[in-house]
């Protein structure tokens, strides 16, 4: 069903992984989609054209480095300039750095907080002002199971993801009397480049195969022992944009194979 016909959706960090699956799904639901993220320009252009062709909708790409407040704000302003408005904002871009606190590099802390948390404040600030003129909007913040529970060696990531759930609640409350909602999605392990790096690092450190490291990594946190898929997360995000999703605001939805049920 084309539930997003005549809607404009901006997905940050949509050149890869979860964000890319969401961009694809929103386009298939009829939305005009704005993509963002890093990557090879030719490959990004190929992806953009592939999504536009499959969905018969308009798909744009705006490069912005979301570690910078000015870029994050400019991204939304440019999207509004091109598309006329933003109806759905998905704050998805994220990075990881794994290290104990005493060795955690200062610049990595700053980068994880800037990209995984502060960028969502800067994009939401500009997008909300636009959504409020029409009294309708959806903001979806991609948090993590690490927004609800901690793990060793991920201080910046866990702090940022807990923080974005707080930002989600405040955004929801400030707009509760309108049809603008804000929710967080909290995935468990998803097989994307962000997690592949952790699997490869574990395989190297423990002298085991990548397959054995994958089983160990997923199994120790996620009772299902299966990855969550980007496509399933995209379906959840799409549901939050529907009319039926209109009463859900300020929530942190887990899709984590049972991780946070323990
Ligand atoms: P990914 O590495 O596949 O995608 C990350 C995206 O963010 C890419 O498009 C990348 O180019 C973009 N990005 C990174 N730094 C950027 C910057 N400075 N400016 C603009 N774009 C930038 O990773 P993913 O797993 O798809 O992660 C997407 C989101 O899901 C992240 O917020 C991540 O924390 C969250 N998440 C992932 C998992 C998982 O297991 N993969 C679990 C829970 C939450």
Notable traits:
Rossmann fold, binds nicotinamide-adenine-dinucleotide, single chain, 7-stranded parallel beta sheet, 262 residues, alpha/beta
Explained architecture:
This protein is an alpha/beta fold and about 260 residues long. The chain has one domain (about 10-190, about 230-260): NAD(P)-binding Rossmann-like Domain (Rossmann fold). It is about 50% helix and about 15% strand. It contains 8 helices and 7 strands. It has helices at about 15-30, 40-55, 70-85, 105-135, 155-175, 195-205, 210-220, 230-240; strands at about 10, 30-35, 60, 90, 135-140, 180-185, 250-255. Strands 3-2-1-4-5-6-7 form a 7-stranded parallel beta sheet, with helices on both faces. β4, α4 and β5 (about 135-140) form a beta-alpha-beta unit. The protein is globular, with a radius of gyration of 18 Å. The mean pLDDT is about 95. It binds nicotinamide-adenine-dinucleotide. Nicotinamide-adenine-dinucleotide binds near residues 38, 94, 115, 190 and 192.
* Tally of individual helices: 8
Let me know the largest β-sheet.
Answer: 7 strands, parallel
Our count of domains comes out at: 1
Order of strands, main sheet, comes to 3-2-1-4-5-6-7
What small molecules does this complex bind?
Answer: nicotinamide-adenine-dinucleotide
- Mean residue pLDDT: 97
Structural class: alpha/beta
At CATH's second level, what is the architecture?
3-Layer(aba) Sandwich
Number of strands: 7
| Anisotropy-based shape | globular
CATH class, please? Alpha Beta
As a percent range, the share of strand residues is 5-15%
Work out the helicity level: 40-55%
Q: Might you state the CATH topology name?
A: Rossmann fold
**Gyration radius, rounded:** 18 Å
Q: For the terminal residues, how far apart are their CA atoms?
A: 36 Å
């Amino acid at each position: 069903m084309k539930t997003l016909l005549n809607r404009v959706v901006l997905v940050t960090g949509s050149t890869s992984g979860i964000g890319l699956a969401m961009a694809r799904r929103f386009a298939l639901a009829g939305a005009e989609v704005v993509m963002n993220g890093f990557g090879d320009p030719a490959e990004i252009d190929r992806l953009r054209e592939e999504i536009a062709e499959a969905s018969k909708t308009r798909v744009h790409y705006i490069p912005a480095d979301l570690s910078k407040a000015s870029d994050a704000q400019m991204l939304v302003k440019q999207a509004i300039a091109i598309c006329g408005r933003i109806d759905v904002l998905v704050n998805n871009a994220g990075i990881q750095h794994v290290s104990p606190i005493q060795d955690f590099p200062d610049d990595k802390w700053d980068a994880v907080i800037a990209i995984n948390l502060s960028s969502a404040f800067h994009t939401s600030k500009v997008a909300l002002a636009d959504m409020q003129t029409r009294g309708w909007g959806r903001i979806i913040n991609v948090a993590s199971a690490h927004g609800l529970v901690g793990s060793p060696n991920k201080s910046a990531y866990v702090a940022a993801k807990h923080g974005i759930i707080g930002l989600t609640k405040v955004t929801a409350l400030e707009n509760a009397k309108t049809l603008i909602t804000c929710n967080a999605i909290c995935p468990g392990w998803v097989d994307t480049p962000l997690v592949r790096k952790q699997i490869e690092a574990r395989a190297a450190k423990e002298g085991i195969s990548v397959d054995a490291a994958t089983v160990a990594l997923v199994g120790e946190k996620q009772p299902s022992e299966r990855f969550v898929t980007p496509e399933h997360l995209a379906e959840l995000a799409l549901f939050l944009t529907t009319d039926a999703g209109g009463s859900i605001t300020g929530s942190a939805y887990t899709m984590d194979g049972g991780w946070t049920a323990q």
